[in-house]
Every structure is written in structure tokens, then in C-alpha cells.
Write a structure and sequence with these properties.
The chain is mainly β and about 350 residues long. About 5% of the residues lie in helices and about 45% in strands. A hairpin with a 4-residue loop joins strand 26 and strand 27 (about 345-350).
Length: about 350
């Protein structure tokens, strides 16, 4: 009997460790809580392009690394990582909220010293990817900045696409059929084309409102404005609210919209009808680096002391911007904030001497 039991345990061990079968974490408890500290969970000393945490099954985390180049996946909160592909690297990817097994990414390929974008899709959490449309190859030096997916229709996604040429403007690429066709928004929407948008600085799809997309854009000869559509990018309008500094970032969830400029921040709690300016006088740093509004309506902001600084502090508001608290005195450069509300984990990338993928337990 002991021999049979021992053999069975050996079988389970090797089955769970197989490279072909990522660990199913439905039987695992959440990672142990280590509150109020930044914990390294992988890629120590490595440079990371970007990563995503699955919004429904947060045990799945996918990471794109710069050096060595590769795409890695964990299914157990970062206990183990599997190299998925050493050729696909990306600076933009997104899991679907409606179909958590689906993830889109935009690959960057170097072809004769020209960078071309190609959108890939996975329907198995990122274990494997297939290429979609190749039309983005017509944009040399493409630099994917962000992908957003409609919360109810996984076939509709938007790609914020820039360029590695600093003076080139960024635009929005849209697909309404899961990537079978991918077009520049200016050719897919007459309403958008009539706005004569010269540059797109950020985009945000509202996870609670299907068809809703907000952008920070620069109509011709004007400072950046909030541009928005409520019908999947068909028709567009301009919100005339302005900041006292250059508007560049936006994040939203349900009725909350947060926008930010170089040294200013504003919050709407009625889906953009009205905005309130947030005083930055109580923040140690005031130059905005990043905004994240979460599905439990927390607001995180990452601030720097100046435009070229490599130091950041992260602040949190639990009451829609009425009050703020500093998470930590840690000033390492941190970016790509992602949040797992199930476990109250804030994830981020660190650069510099302590580079890697980190997690902060609230």
C-alpha cells in the first residue's frame, strides 16, 4: 500500500511540473499577504517591456522582456514562469474582461532596421498566439503604446499606435471583427476624421460601458482635449474641459474618469460631465507619470519630481480623490501599474538597480 501511495505522489509531482501543462491554480490559495512592501516576484535584474494581469483569473500574468527578449507566462501568481515565445515581444497587450482566456498583443518586428507592428491573439490565456492582420506593416517604425478591448465584445479592440520617430504623431487603430480587418480610425470613422486630430496621447475604454472609449487627443492647432465616443468609435465629440498644464493621461472605470497633465490632475465622478481639480500641494512629487482607476474604484497615481526623473512615488485614493495616502517611501522608478482587486495586489515594473516585476499588498 505504501508503495502504491508513493508511486501516485511521484506521478502527481511530475505531471504538475510538466512543461507542457502549466500548473492549474484553481486548487491553490492566493499568495501569502505581505502588506505595505514591494515584493519582487520575478525577472530580477532584467529589463521588462510590459506585462498584464488577467482581470478575472489573476493567477495568470504575462510578461514581455527586453533582455533577454521573450514572452513569459505564469499561471500561479509568479511562483513559476514558462517561456512562451522568444520571437514575439511587445510593448502593448491586454486581456479581455468578457472572455478572460483571450489576450491581444502587438508584436514589434525589426525588418531591415525598420520596425513593423503585427497584432497577435491568444484564446488560451497566452499559452500560444496566432498572427492576425498584417496591415500595420504599412507603418514603418511602429511603436505600440496601448491596447484596449471592449468590455462586452471581445472582437472589438483599439490600438494606440505611435512611432519610434520622436516627431511622428500617434494614432488609433481599430478592429471590429477580432483582427480580421484592422484600420486607422481616421479611415474607419468620418466623424473622427472631421476632427482633424493631429496626435493621440492616451486612450481608455470604460470597463463598465460597452462602446465607450475616451482619448486624449490634439485637434488641429489646439491643445489636447478629451475626445470620446459611445458607439464603438463611429461618432466622436470633444469635451471642452482643459487643465492648466499639458493634458496627457486618462484612466476610467464606470462613472469615474481621471485625467492628468504635467503638474495637474482632475477627476470626474459623473462620466465626464464635470471635473474637479485635485490640488497637488500635498504631494511630494507633482509631475504625473501614470494614472490607474481600478474596478473597486481606487485611484492610483504615480508621480515624479520632474520630466526626466527616474524616481517615482505612488499615491492612492479610496474616496474618489477626496483624500490621498502615499503607499511607501520607495522612490525607485516604477511604471505599468496593474491591479488585482481579488487579492488587493498592485503590480508594477521597476527599473534601475532593483529592476524586475514587483507586487505591493494593500
Amino acid at each position: 500500500m505504501k508503495t502504491i501511495l508513493f508511486s501516485f505522489l511521484i506521478f502527481l509531482f511530475f505531471y504538475g511540473c510538466s512543461n507542457d501543462n502549466l500548473v492549474n491554480t484553481n486548487n491553490f490559495n492566493s499568495p501569502p499577504a505581505q502588506q505595505n512592501e514591494f515584493d519582487l516576484i520575478g525577472f530580477e535584474g532584467k529589463s521588462i517591456f510590459t506585462f498584464e494581469v488577467n482581470p478575472i483569473n489573476p493567477n495568470y500574468i504575462i510578461v514581455s522582456t527586453k533582455s533577454p527578449r521573450g514572452l513569459y507566462l505564469t499561471s500561479n501568481f509568479g511562483r513559476n514562469w514558462t517561456l512562451i515565445d522568444s520571437n514575439i515581444v511587445t510593448t502593448a497587450m491586454k486581456y479581455s474582461l468578457n472572455n478572460p482566456e483571450t489576450i491581444y498583443l502587438c508584436n514589434v518586428r525589426d525588418v531591415s532596421n525598420h520596425y513593423y507592428g503585427l497584432v497577435y491573439k491568444s484564446t488560451n490565456y497566452g499559452r500560444s498566439f496566432s498572427g492576425l492582420d498584417s496591415s500595420l506593416r504599412t507603418w514603418p517604425m511602429a511603436r505600440p503604446l496601448k491596447i484596449e478591448i471592449d468590455p462586452l465584445n471581445t472582437e472589438i479592440f483599439y490600438l494606440h499606435l505611435g512611432s519610434y520617430i520622436p516627431t511622428d504623431p500617434a494614432d488609433i487603430i481599430i478592429s471590429r471583427n477580432g483582427g480580421k480587418n484592422i484600420n486607422h480610425l481616421s479611415s474607419a470613422s468620418n466623424s473622427y476624421s472631421q476632427l482633424q486630430v493631429q496626435d493621440i496621447l492616451d486612450i481608455c475604454v470604460n470597463p463598465k460601458r460597452t462602446g465607450s472609449i475616451f482619448t486624449i487627443g490634439s485637434p488641429i492647432y489646439n491643445d489636447p482635449k478629451i475626445l470620446y465616443s459611445t458607439d464603438f468609435g463611429e461618432n466622436w465629440a470633444i469635451n471642452d474641459f482643459t487643465l492648466n498644464s499639458f493634458m496627457k493621461k486618462i484612466s476610467c472605470f464606470d462613472e469615474i474618469i481621471v485625467i492628468g497633465g504635467n503638474n495637474s490632475l482632475a477627476i470626474s465622478t459623473d462620466n465626464g460631465k464635470n471635473f474637479s481639480i485635485v490640488s497637488t500641494s500635498n504631494f511630494e512629487y507633482t509631475f504625473l507619470n501614470e494614472i490607474l482607476v481600478t474596478n473597486d474604484k481606487k485611484i492610483f497615481i504615480s508621480l515624479m519630481p520632474g520630466i526626466n526623473s527616474k524616481n517615482t512615488l505612488i499615491y492612492l485614493s479610496d474616496d474618489k480623490g477626496q483624500s490621498w495616502k502615499k503607499l511607501s517611501n520607495d522612490t525607485d522608478y516604477k511604471y505599468n501599474l496593474r491591479y488585482d482587486s481579488n487579492n488587493r495586489f498592485l503590480y508594477m515594473i521597476k527599473e534601475g538597480d532593483n529592476s524586475g516585476l514587483y507586487r505591493f499588498k494593500l
